[in-house]
């Protein structure tokens, strides 16, 4: 309960104060302790002010009043502007003003051991004091200073309303003893408060420590490594879940038992091994760190042997003496199984790499004679005998188409190997988007016409003139594949390509290209499978488009003539495929930074959409020259002087005849060194210069790259006076 803030100096009212001032009482003339700030600070440190009554102080004040036969006994504490009573026997208030306090004199330096006023009315220092002239009508005062931590914080005082004779020596000693008991109570109270604080902090720290111990215990118990601990007598004190799981020995069963119990029931050939383990544990509990010893434990359920590789760390007490050991193990058998699996995976990966390398090499080696074969077939188709024999022409066309199909399959296998090994990279450049799209459409437009299909191409006018930075070759490869699949699996109706702009900024252009058809469609549960590598279905699955994966649209138009798409004329949806086309297309789209999505309905049709965000081409870089296939096949070629550099006689024969059939003048060199010599000679005499050099890359003596470097090192030829096309090497 709060103490009443009552000051006797103001209780008499204004008229009483005026009378006191007329009698000469001046409160500000009362003494002030010279170290009052330090004294008050010491008082506040004990946290006594404005606290509730406490029985020890009250009992002491009551005992003092009765012992000295006075009506009032106070434990008075002198604050900044008041004196506050921790105990007040015979006085109904808790504080008075400091200016009128007798205790102010009792705590002054140089004051007597007991400050005693026998009759305040006769003492000129106090005769005008409002506490003398008014309630509580003090006439006698005896106060002993309470000195705590070297500072007088207050007094134990005796007050009477009538004059009294001085205390005798015995009474003075007794009052000093009472005051000392008050000081003891103050210190004891402070110690009790400090003890409460320390105890509260201790409880808090204990709770935190217990929580941390539980956390550590949980971590150990749930660790993915077998962990156990033993004391100095090898009695198990900890056994986590992992070691319980491995050995089928529950913690409740083994904790408190000796680790040597593991030897009971173990096969005789393992007992000696366990004894070695126990000796290693004994060294650990004696203070030695023991690393990497093996412990064989027999499972108590299924009887299998668990081989642990254990490291033991000594446990030390506060004095640094060993009291046990903590052991961390590893399941050696499981580790060996994992290592074996890892070895198998590495072997499998190495085998796959060798397979991909072999596939790439074989694809290259197979394409060389196959290109020669296709060239010879092309020459045969151009001969007069073929032109005059319809059946022979049909057979040669069928052979050429089959060879083209085989070449495309080899190219697909090579692309697949590169994609799976991460070795296929893009060759980005600046190019205009819509001409590249139209070029892909033009390549296959005649195939749609042959099947009687409407081939519709819709281009967003917003894309006209848009130049982007990407790989046009790979983009064309994807479009050719999608268009060919649509044509192949549409018996009647239409194939539609729509190119539209979906977003545009200064930095990029969002493009959506959709290829749709009215073909046989794909079942819902098979639509995602068509994008998997090697997934294809045979002739009987006419309701599925998985068989469309036999052809992938190659992008490099310089490698295929537009008039020779990659399947035989009249191929049907029943043709089984290698399952590579759409797999390659999706992987290429991912490399291009886009997405490829498919939606289809059986007997209705299929739509495949390609979405790309292509960087806008910056000014200053020219679009690369169109490959030769971009030229219309009906356009006549000028007559050029061609140097053919090739080490394969068969390829030389095919290329030479094809070029001569097109009206070109052909010279032959068998390797790079011969080619460099021919070029240097032609430059020296000026009589015969080459307009075009067609050169193989992989040749003996000097390869194509080395020869090109030698060409650049040689002096350039003089400008020609005619208007023929620029020379190219």
UniProtKB/TrEMBL annotation:
Stretches with biased composition (Low complexity): 560-574
Tell me the ranges covered by the PAS domain, including all copies: 212-288
Enumerate the Pfam families for this protein: GAF, HATPase_c, HisKA, PAS, Response_reg
Superkingdom is Eukaryota
Q: Name one GO biological process term.
A: regulation of DNA-templated transcription
4-aspartylphosphate: which positions carry it?
696
The record, for InterPro entries, names: CheY-like_superfamily, GAF, GAF-like_dom_sf, HATPase_C_sf, HATPase_dom, His_kinase_dom, HisK_dim/P_dom, HisK_dim/P_sf
Which chemical reaction does it catalyze?
Answer: ATP + protein L-histidine = ADP + protein N-phospho-L-histidine
Enzymatic class: transferase
GO molecular function terms attached to this record:
histidine phosphotransfer kinase activity; phosphorelay sensor kinase activity
Occurrences of domain PAC (ranges): 291-344
Q: What is its EC number?
A: 2.7.13.3
Please list where the region (Disordered) is annotated. Answer: 551-574
Domain (Histidine kinase) ranges: 361-616
Q: Which SUPFAM superfamilies match?
A: ATPase domain of HSP90 chaperone/DNA topoisomerase II/histidine kinase, CheY-like, GAF domain-like, Homodimeric domain of signal transducing histidine kinase, PYP-like sensor domain (PAS domain)
Looking up SMART domains in the UniProt record yields: GAF, HATPase_c, HisKA
Q: Does the keyword Metal-binding apply?
A: no
Q: Which PANTHER family match?
A: OSMOSENSING HISTIDINE PROTEIN KINASE SLN1 (PTHR43047:SF72), TWO-COMPONENT HISTIDINE PROTEIN KINASE (PTHR43047)
Please identify the protein, giving its name as recorded.
histidine kinase
Species annotation: Emiliania huxleyi
């Amino acid at each position: 309960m709060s103490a009443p803030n009552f000051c006797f100096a103001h209780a008499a009212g204004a008229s009483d104060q005026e009378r006191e001032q007329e009698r000469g009482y001046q409160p500000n003339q009362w003494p002030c302790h010279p170290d009052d700030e330090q004294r008050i600070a010491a008082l506040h440190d004990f946290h006594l002010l404005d606290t509730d009554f406490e029985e020890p102080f009250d009992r002491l004040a009551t005992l003092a009043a009765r012992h000295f036969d006075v009506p009032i006994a106070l434990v008075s504490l002198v604050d900044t502007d008041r004196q506050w009573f921790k105990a007040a026997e015979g006085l109904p208030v808790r504080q008075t003003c400091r200016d009128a306090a007798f205790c102010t004199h009792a705590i002054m330096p140089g004051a007597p051991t007991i400050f005693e006023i026998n009759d305040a009315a006769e003492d000129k220092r106090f005769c005008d004091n409002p506490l003398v002239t008014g309630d509580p009508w003090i006439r006698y005062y005896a106060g002993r200073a309470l000195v705590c931590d070297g500072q007088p914080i207050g007094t134990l005082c005796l007050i009477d309303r009538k004059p009294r004779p001085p205390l005798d020596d015995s009474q003075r000693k007794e009052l000093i003893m009472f005051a000392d008991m008050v000081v003891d109570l103050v210190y004891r109270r402070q110690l009790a408060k400090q003890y409460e604080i320390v105890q509260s902090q201790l409880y808090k720290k204990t709770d935190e420590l217990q929580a941390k111990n539980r956390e550590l215990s949980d971590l150990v118990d749930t660790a993915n490594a077998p962990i156990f601990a033993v004391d100095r007598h090898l009695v198990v004190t900890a056994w986590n879940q992992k070691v319980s799981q491995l050995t089928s020995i529950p913690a409740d069963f083994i904790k408190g038992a000796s680790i040597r119990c593991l030897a009971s029931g173990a096969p005789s050939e393992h007992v000696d091994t366990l004894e070695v383990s126990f000796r290693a544990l004994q060294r650990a509990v004696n203070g030695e760190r023991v690393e990497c010893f093996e412990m064989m434990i027999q499972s108590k359920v299924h009887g299998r042997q668990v081989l642990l590789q254990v490291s033991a760390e000594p446990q030390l007490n506060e004095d640094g003496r060993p009291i046990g050991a903590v052991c961390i193990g590893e399941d050696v058998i499981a580790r060996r199984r994992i290592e074996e699996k890892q070895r198998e995976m590495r072997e499998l990966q190495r085998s796959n790499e060798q397979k991909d390398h072999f596939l790439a090499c074989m694809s290259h080696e197979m394409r060389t004679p196959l290109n020669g074969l296709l060239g010879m077939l092309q020459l045969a188709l151009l001969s007069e005998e073929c032109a005059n024999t319809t059946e022979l022409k049909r057979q040669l066309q069928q052979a050429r188409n089959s060879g083209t199909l085989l070449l495309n399959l080899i190219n697909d296998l090579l692309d697949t190997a590169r994609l799976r090994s991460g070795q296929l990279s893009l060759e980005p450049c600046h190019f205009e988007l819509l001409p590249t799209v139209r070029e892909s459409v033009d390549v296959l437009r005649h195939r749609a016409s042959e099947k009687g299909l409407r081939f519709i191409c819709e281009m967003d006018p917003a894309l006209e003139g848009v130049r982007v930075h990407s790989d046009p070759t790979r983009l064309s490869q994807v479009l050719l594949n999608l268009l060919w699949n649509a044509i192949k699996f549409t018996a009647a109706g239409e194939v539609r390509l729509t190119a539209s702009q979906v977003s545009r900024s200064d930095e990029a252009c969002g493009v959506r290209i959709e290829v749709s058809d009215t073909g046989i469609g794909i079942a819902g549960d098979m639509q995602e499978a068509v994008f998997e590598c090697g997934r294809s279905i045979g002739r009987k699955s006419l309701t599925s488009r998985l068989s469309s994966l036999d052809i992938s649209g190659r992008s490099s138009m310089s490698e295929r003539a537009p008039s020779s798409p990659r399947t035989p004329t009249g191929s049907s949806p029943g043709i089984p495929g290698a399952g590579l086309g759409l797999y390659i297309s999706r992987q290429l789209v991912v490399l291009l930074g886009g997405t490829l999505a498919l939606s289809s309905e059986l007997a209705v049709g299929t739509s495949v959409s390609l979405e790309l965000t292509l960087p806008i081409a910056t000014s200053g870089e020219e679009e690369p020259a169109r490959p030769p296939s971009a030229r219309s096949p009906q356009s006549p070629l000028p007559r050029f002087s061609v140097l053919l550099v090739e080490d394969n006689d068969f390829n030389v024969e095919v290329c030479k005849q094809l070029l001569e059939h097109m009206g070109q003048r052909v010279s032959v060199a068998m390797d790079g060194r011969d080619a460099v010599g021919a070029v240097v000679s032609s430059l020296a005499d000026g009589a015969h210069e080459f307009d075009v050099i067609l050169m193989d890359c992989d040749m003996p003596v000097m390869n194509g790259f080395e020869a090109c470097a030698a060409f650049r090192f040689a002096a350039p030829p003089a400008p020609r006076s005619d208007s023929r096309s620029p020379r190219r090497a």
